[in-house]
Design a protein that fits this description.
Blueprint (H helix, E strand, L loop, with lengths): L1 E3 L3 E12 L6 H4 L5 E7 L9 E11 L8 E5 L5 E7 L6 E13 L10
Antiparallel strand pairs: 1-2, 2-7, 3-6, 4-7, 5-6
């Protein structure tokens, strides 16, 4: 995690969510769940839940059907979140890679908890 001006942290990453064409998985076979969730853990916790953005950085879809996709970050906490990819109808998705970025407050090294 990078620290900006001591009290703001930023972290980013990339992740392949699935490669269903390799094993005729649900997204490629159009049979089964049309949603994938993957947990992403931050390298260190934020002081409070950060703002998180997720985008598709690579997609491989069948050209014979409409390309339908929804990607988002859900269940965001100080320590991580879930990347959620959804498609519907007859869309066939071979694989998806997602990029993400989190920006939020971090504990300052000069802050002390005195009990």
């Amino acid at each position: 995690m990078k620290r900006l001006s001591g009290k703001i942290g930023i972290e980013q990453g990339t992740r392949v969510l699935f490669s269903d064409f390799a094993n005729d998985g649900a997204m490629w076979a159009d049979d089964g769940p049309r949603e994938v969730r993957q947990a992403q853990v931050f390298s260190e916790p934020f002081a409070a839940a950060p703002m998180v953005t997720v985008s598709i950085s690579m997609w491989d879809m069948d050209h014979k059907t409409n390309s339908r996709a929804d990607i988002s970050a859900e269940n965001i906490t100080e320590s991580g979140f879930q990347i959620v990819f959804r498609t519907w109808k007859d869309t066939r998705v071979a694989r998806i890679r997602a990029d993400w970025m989190a920006l939020g407050p971090v504990r300052d090294d000069d802050e002390w908890d005195v009990v």
